[in-house]
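Posting here for the record, re: 3-acetylpyridine adenine dinucleotide.
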Amino acid sequence: MAGNLSKSQLDQSEQVDVLIIGAGFAGVYQLKQLRDRGFNARIVEAGATLGGIWYWNCYPGARVDTHVPMYEFSDEELWRDWNWTERFPDWAELREYFAYVDKKWDLSKDIQFNTHVTAAEFDEESLQWSVKTDDGVTTRANSVVFCTGFAAKSYIPEFDGLDDFEGICHHTAHWPQQGLDFTGKRVGIIGTGASGVQVAQEAGATASQLTVFQRTPILALAMQQKTLDVATQDEMKKEYPARYKRRNESYGGFDFPETEKSALEVSDEERNATFEDAWARGGFSFWSNTFNDILMDMDANQTAYDFWRSKVHSRVIDPVIAETLAPAVAPHPFGVKRPSLEQNYFELFNQDNVAVVDLKATPLEKITPKGVQIDGKELEFDILVMATGFDAVTGGLTQIDIKGTRGETLKQHWEKGAKTHLGVAVNGFPNMLLVYGPQSPSGFCNGPSCAEIQGDWIVKMLEDMREQKVNRYEATADAENSWTDHVNMISEMTMFPKADSWYMGANIPGKPRQILNYPGGVPLYMEQCNNAAKDGYKGFVLDSVKSK
Ligand code: N01
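Prediction output follows.
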């Protein structure tokens, strides 16, 4: 990439003030803000371009589940001249957006692409991190900011026989950059999360046969995709400042207004009308913007599930298939496992070339050289798609050999469960900060919103440390324990623990079960971060040490 920092340049550089790992929304925002404030900051990025998740997730149909203009930076210098073609843009357009941001903010000159961080170790002598990359280079940094996102480590279950499959097999997050044509192929998709739904919609259009292997039905919501023209967006832009302000004030970093009513206090007619309205608005409206007790009260939650189920049944012709996709008994409370958005997912199953296999009724026995064995029968495939998700939130961090002051790795520190102070710092790992990390709003928050809101707090902290001549800052063990208790306490007040989801770490065998995202919403989260900062960064030990 033009302007890309060459490996030899990095090699020669003695040290940087801040090394940022990852060039998605969080990382590029850090780079821009820190550079603007005079920090010598750089990014190391594993992908070949900016975009983070949008570099890796280029499978057919990959698109964002967040409506325009929420999924972009709030900087007017950017949005004034940028227009999208669709209300829910696809991965290719998101990449174009990142290329545009790169040009406007002049980022690439300070980014080293195609480089994996393999290890990082804090050195008490120099009070610096030594960060090793897979090109053999070690960079020294006063601070490291991990912006690895929630989905940097993909997950493929240990299916018996997987290595013997003779066809083409890819995880959605490791899709070939040159693409893969489903036309006329027999395609099997394992997994029905957001990725599985999106690939299925594409594969169903051209594959000779598509089989969707479903373990848990996905409670997918109507996207209500629309094309967008420039005139419409010019009009919309008058509202952008207010909508971006709202992003900072809402639970999940969106622009939805407050929901004030309980689903149980209104008449059936009013409830139905509210649900219909949210359904017609599309996107996450039905998830986040109907009644205030959907995620708190089981009876309220049931009303949302029943509405959703009736919508699915009205679209699927075969009642047995409809029941497999939307069973009478909810697989888990509505909305506590991430719903995905769909355009024609349920109609797919009315097509002759599309089938669903219920893995709860007929478990996947093994992968064979030709396909998948279910109930003693072999189904043959040319292409198998692993839409099986991620070791979310923590996996992207613990897969790096990050060593703190006690010789302990981050993976060891989090062996019994992730713990942090404010979701940004870890005891025993000084001068290390996390954006979008565990116990921060992370997966419960719209990515660009968190990149800015949490990102601003981190930038301010780094500025304050510089101003106060603090060269060693570390979260205390007590602060870490009390933040963990606080996060768990809020989680217990919700229904999130009732689902086996990646939100709970429950999708990965052996992973400790815990709420991985801060469940109290962005405003409460930021209030606590801001209070800690005002209180002299309460929960941190700040030192101005003469380095040895
Ligand atoms: O992964 P997932 P994803 N045998 O973990 C199944 C974001 N995202 O990549 O539910 C059989 O949701 C598993 O079954 P179950 C978004 O936040 C965003 O789809 O565990 N099946 C599940 O169906 C999303 O939530 C966008 O029973 C197995 C699937 O694999 C997150 O990324 C687009 C299995 C995994 O679903 C992750 O989504 C895409 C096994 N052994 C993703 N193990 C946009 O906004 C797992 N499964 C654009």
